[in-house]
């Protein structure tokens, strides 16, 4: 067994703690947000475990995911290969999420510490300052969630010269933590951002599929419509929850698989995610994928950042509801476009306009809060 240390996720504390956890000179690490709750976890963990990540609980009860140093470093090595070589990293994500942990791990694996952005809420100016402070003779990388990318693109389009110089000096910007709307992706490319879409989870040591292509060593299959991932980046399981671990991680001769709970399609070379299996609603007796509805809505002008959630309806059962900050959005036009693309049952029944989309600390949309707004 190995000791488990609870560590605040401020970079000055987290970076040396992660270095020691990876090389075995220190205890395993559970990063937590400063001032945030500390999960109830054992004081000791199995020897392979280097990092424990508390999930955000966006689609179920939170879990403590136990990840080995082998999984973290395998992911870092495969990422380095996919991006074209080692480089310096800017840390712009919270360190208590797997995406933030992996920025630190990738930087340490490349022989350098990541450069954190200025403390406080994320701003495009803080990112630009950190990127431009990186060494000019090495490749430059960072990782963002879509909300952060949106602010960066807004800054470039508004004429921010420092932001434009910064993003164009980055060799890759990994985007994860939620689906990247195609409209935002197009704007980012036009702004000179080298966007790489990533897909993965804490259970896979972070992103393990880039632009639909699995990293080296990562296995992909779709079973009964569910995406399953295998390979050396898989976590050990959930601390103190053997039954939940057995349900999520399938043990087969010669290979383990993680059941993602996502619906998708795999052609042997490229993976596409169509939504969550638990985001299929029955409306008027017909099955509707909220992920597909959201994608269709986001393809409409002015609704690139809109989100779609379920809400109860006395007549139809559950129905798709659009939540957006676009005050000019027209429900009739949305219903017509989505109905033409996906069928009448998929057409959203309501449209809720909010001043701001509620977010989790990770920057992901808080879908539970959105569903409550939609239900109200």
UniProtKB/TrEMBL annotation:
SUPFAM superfamilies according to UniProt: Acetyl-CoA synthetase-like
Pfam families in the cross-refs: AMP-binding, AMP-binding_C
Gene3D superfamilies (UniProt xref): 3.30.300.30, N-terminal domain of ligase-like (3.40.50.12780)
Keyword Cell membrane: no
Record's keyword annotation contains Ligase: yes
Entries under PROSITE patterns matching the protein: AMP_BINDING
A single GO molecular function term of this UniProt record: ligase activity
InterPro entries in UniProt: AMP-bd_C, AMP-bd_C_sf, AMP-binding_CS, AMP-dep_synth/lig_dom, ANL_N_sf, ATP-dep_AMP-bd_enzyme
Sorted UniProt keywords: Ligase
Ranges for domain AMP-dependent synthetase/ligase: 44-239
Coiled coil, from the record: none
Residues annotated as domain AMP-binding enzyme C-terminal: 293-364
Protein name as it appears in the record: O-succinylbenzoate--CoA ligase
Species classification: Bacteria, Bacillati, Actinomycetota, Actinomycetes, Micrococcales
């Amino acid at each position: 067994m190995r000791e488990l240390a609870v560590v605040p996720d401020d970079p000055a504390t987290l970076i040396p703690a992660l270095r020691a956890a990876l090389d075995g000179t220190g205890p395993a690490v559970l990063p937590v947000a400063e001032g945030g709750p500390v999960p109830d976890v054992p004081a000791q963990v199995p020897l392979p475990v280097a990092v424990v990540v508390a999930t955000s609980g966006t689609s179920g009860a939170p879990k403590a995911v136990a990840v080995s140093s082998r999984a973290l470093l395998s992911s870092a090595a495969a990422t380095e290969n996919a991006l074209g070589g080692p480089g310096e990293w800017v840390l712009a994500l919270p360190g208590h999420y797997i995406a933030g942990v992996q920025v630190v791990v990738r930087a340490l694996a490349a022989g350098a510490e990541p450069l954190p952005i200025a403390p406080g809420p994320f701003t495009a100016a803080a990112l630009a300052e950190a990127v431009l402070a990186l060494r000019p003779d090495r490749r430059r990388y960072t990782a963002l969630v879509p909300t952060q990318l949106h602010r960066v693109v807004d800054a470039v389009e508004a004429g921010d010269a420092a932001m434009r110089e910064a993003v164009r000096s980055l060799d890759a910007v990994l985007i994860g933590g939620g689906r990247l709307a195609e409209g935002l992706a197009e704007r980012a490319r036009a702004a000179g951002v080298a966007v790489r879409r990533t897909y993965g989870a804490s259970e896979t040591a972070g992103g393990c599929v880039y632009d639909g292509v699995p990293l080296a060593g990562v296995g992909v299959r779709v079973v009964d419509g569910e995406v399953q991932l295998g390979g050396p980046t898989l976590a050990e399981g959930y601390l103190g929850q053997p039954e939940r671990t057995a349900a999520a991680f399938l043990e087969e001769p010669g290979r383990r698989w993680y059941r993602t709970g996502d619906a998708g399609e795999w052609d042997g070379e490229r993976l596409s995610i169509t939504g969550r299996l638990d985001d299929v609603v029955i409306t008027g007796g017909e099955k509707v994928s909220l992920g597909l509805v959201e994608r269709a809505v986001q393809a409409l002008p002015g609704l690139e950042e809109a989100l779609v959630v379920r809400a109860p309806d006395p007549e139809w059962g559950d129905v798709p509801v659009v939540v957006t900050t676009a005050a000019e959005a027209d429900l009739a036009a949305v219903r017509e476009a989505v109905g033409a693309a996906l069928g009448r049952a998929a057409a959203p029944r309501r449209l809720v306009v909010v001043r701001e989309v509620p977010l989790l600390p990770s920057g992901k949309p808080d879908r539970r809060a959105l569903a409550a707004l939609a239900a109200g």
